[in-house]
Amino acid sequence: METLTKIEQLIMKCIWGFKKPPTVYDINSVLKEKYHLEYTRSTTRTYLTKLEKKGYIELKRDGMFSYISPVMSEQEYCKNQMKYMKDFWFGGSAKEMSASLTELIEDEERRIEGLIDEFDD
Length: 121
Prior knowledge:
- With 121 residues, the protein is mainly alpha-helical.
- It contains five helices and two strands.
- The longest helix has 27 residues.
- The protein is flat.
């Protein structure tokens, strides 16, 4: 599947967050509330058309509204992204990728310990 732009990823994140297929208005509400992004209905509709052409969503029209359904789950997308990162950034080595993730975890643990130490002082 084609790569998603950052805004397309955010829109997909919004879609995955709904229990039932959302409308453009539902997605715009989440974009505004959660990500502080305000798009017109037509702008969001343009992104949805691109996502449909890339094979990530299906648009179903019912009366005046279009309902958006993801073609793949968020977990499937995440797994594909992780595989891409492993192959592209770590030469296909899961071991190298794991080492890098371990470093990130250790950095985060040190940051949290520093916050706790500041709080205790």
